[in-house]
Amino acid sequence: MSNIPRTIVVGGGLAGLSTAHTVLERGGSVLLLDKKPSLGGNSVKASSGINGAGTEAQRALQVEDTAEMFYKDTASSAGPDLARPELITALTANSASAIAWLTDTFNVDLSVVSRLGGHTVSRTHRDKSGAPGWAITSALMKKLTALADEPDPRVEIAKSARVVRLLEESAVVVGVEYEVGGSRVEARGNVVLATGGYAADSSPDGLLAQHRPDLLALATTNGDHATGDGLRLALALAAPAAVCDLTQVQVHPTGFVDPAHPDAKTKFLAAEALRGAGGLLLDAHGARFVREVERRDVVTEAMQTVEGAGRGPVRLVLGERAVEEVKKHCDFYVSKNLMKRYSNAAAFAEDTGIPLDNILSTFASYGQDGDRFGTGTFRLLFLSLSHDILHSYTILDSSRCMLTTFLAVSTTKSYTYTEALCVAIITPVVHYTMGGLTIDPSARVTHTRDGKLVPIPGLWAAGEVIGGVHGRNRLAGSSLLEAVVFGRIAGTGAVGAP
Q: What is the mean pLDDT of residues 107-133?
């Protein structure tokens, strides 16, 4: 056994798992605690991917990207008043190495790269299975669990173990007290909080009620574990941790409305990849109302305006080519009765009552001159395969600095929209909490002393429990990245600290 102090990781999602593996890589030992009977947290449900700038996968696809470009996109999304340069730099500068760590150390396939809302280039990586959160998190989970089962004396995992307080001595965090199997146990070591956010904390006196009561009526995509435990633990210290941006809660524009349970308070997320593949958002009249690959906050505001004006429900519509790009997503959603297949636009119109002429008009104008919403990077995905394809040619898309192949289609004949469609009713949902514990770029939790933020000795944090990284709006693909980057930073710091 190493004589390096044990690191106690609270939370078994991707941030906690990344921390634990980093501790082991640095020669330390780890105790991983999770209050649920299984590991994974919300990370296993992440469906869009993980961002990285300057990666091998991007180079293979001729995508020119840099950490500086990623920084600019993230800072723009965060907003000038809430962007924190040192944290954004830590996130973006370490993104390529985070992707390499996942692919090289855990053999995770991250070869598919997409451009999602708010990004100026394609940088969101996922695997070919279409379930990136599970692919990434399960790989780390399986490896750590295998070590614990050997057993490896460096690794201990305790599930259904709820941390009730942080142990302090002379203003230094020295361990935790936790409940497991009806008993209370004290464990000593440096502590990393990786407990997630508070997007499911909808209790009358919860964090959402305190800071965003206007969101309590919305459903959430989060599991019932996302109740802000880490914040409460750190706020209960003798010198409470500082927090920031607790009013900044991301409402994701697309949560599935289950026809069998339309009022359910927990909803499946309709992955941003569906819109990234070319999915359209249509109001109750069959009209588009926003550029689908805009930033999440922009799309959400547009959807809420439409719903407030009585033009709901909003539907997400994918044509054949879009479905092919995210086929496994769509197959899964159809199996859950969250998405419905139609043989063509006429069947869609008949079932929903939307005038067919409106639908055809929307499809016909998509990507054409005068289309005020544009197509982002997914031009002509709704053109039927039966159309007269004149030729395929390649142009340089300067907005992405990469080569993109489009199809030139005859405009001398009217389009016949005979292709099959996948359609879902969607609504905005509480998805992610940008606020949380204040940290420095070394992932050390801070508190206020003499008017300044200073680190709390013995305490680090990673993942959604931290605040300040995303400002007003988190870019798609940056939650998994935040978990890995700051988990690795926290793990390194916890091992190296006395």
A: 92
**Given the structure tokens 């709901």, which residue do they identify?**
312
Q: Is 184 a catalytic residue?
A: no
* Residue 336 resides in a domain: yes
Are 35 and 182 in the same domain?
A: yes
Instruction: Indicate the number of domains in the chain.
Output: 2
What residues make up the domain containing 149? Answer: 7-247+434-496
Q: In angstroms, rounded to a whole number, what is the distance separating the alpha carbons of residues 209 and 212? A: 6
Provide the whole-model pTM.
0.84
239 in the same domain as 196: yes
Q: Is residue 190 part of a domain?
A: yes
From 126, 275, 295, 315, active-site residue:
275
Q: Are residues 272 and 239 in the same domain?
A: no
Cα separation of the two ends of the chain: 17
Poorest-pLDDT segment among 207-211, 317-321, 407-411: 407-411
The pLDDT, as a whole number, for residue 470 is: 97
Whether 252 is catalytic is: yes
What angle, 0 to 180 degrees and rounded to 10, lies between the N-to-C axes of helices 67-78 and 95-106? Answer: 110
Report how far apart, in Å, the C-alpha atoms of 144 and of each of 90, 110, 149, 471 are. 26, 20, 9, 32
Cβ within 8 Å of residue 16, ≥6 positions away: 9, 10, 32, 34, 41, 192, 194, 462, 463, 487
Q: What pLDDT shows up at residue 365?
A: 86
Q: What beta strand segments (E) does 29-132 contain?
A: 30-33, 50-51, 112-114, 124-126
Catalytic residue, candidates 119, 154, 211, 252: 252
Residue 403 lies in a domain: no
CB 235 within 8 A of CB 241: yes
